[in-house]
Design brief:
158 residues; alpha+beta; five-stranded mixed beta sheet; 25% strand; globular
Length: 158
């Protein structure tokens, strides 16, 4: 996927700061969640270093005919308004049933109080909305794409 023009200057600044980056490693520019407020809240957790993982319904990838992220790929995280904030590198991707996501992954995702119980409640609600858009119904054994990442570029704010 080519780097979208809207974030091209940000990508170029990242590439220059790194001394060059293979553009073939670009995966996507995206905002977390399904609302501008959620995008801003989750991006802030990434910028603070609290959120180092994310999860998505496998069905949503299938509906969009979108390949799963692979280790080494780079993505630009944007705000709810679409402004680029940082570049993340995918470290690991694993597909597992929703009810088999463990406490370690929930803590790495860094949302709420970091507990598995919070993760399950918040993600059951999110995946229910995501599944409805994909014409599916949330279930405890639905496949979830669990991605771990690290921030590789975050320019100073201001």
């Amino acid at each position: 996927m080519p780097v979208p023009e809207a974030v091209r200057p940000f990508w170029n600044a990242f590439a220059q700061a790194q001394g060059g980056v293979d553009e073939a490693r670009f995966y996507e520019a995206f905002a977390f969640g399904d609302s501008p407020a959620m995008a801003d809240e989750l991006a802030a957790l990434v910028m603070q270093g609290t959120k180092r993982a994310t999860a998505g319904a496998l069905w949503a990838y299938e509906v969009e005919a979108k390949p799963l992220p692979r280790p080494g790929e780079l993505s630009i995280v944007t705000s709810g308004a679409g402004l680029p904030l940082c570049v993340i590198e995918t470290l690991a991707v694993e597909v597992r049933p929703f009810d088999q996501v463990d406490a370690d992954f929930a803590a790495t995702e860094g949302e709420g109080d970091g507990s598995l119980a919070f993760w399950q409640a918040a993600h059951a609600a999110f995946f229910s909305r995501e599944c409805a858009q994909a014409g599916r119904v949330f279930s405890p054994d639905m496949p979830v794409v669990c991605e771990r990442f690290r921030v590789v570029y975050a320019p100073p704010v201001g």
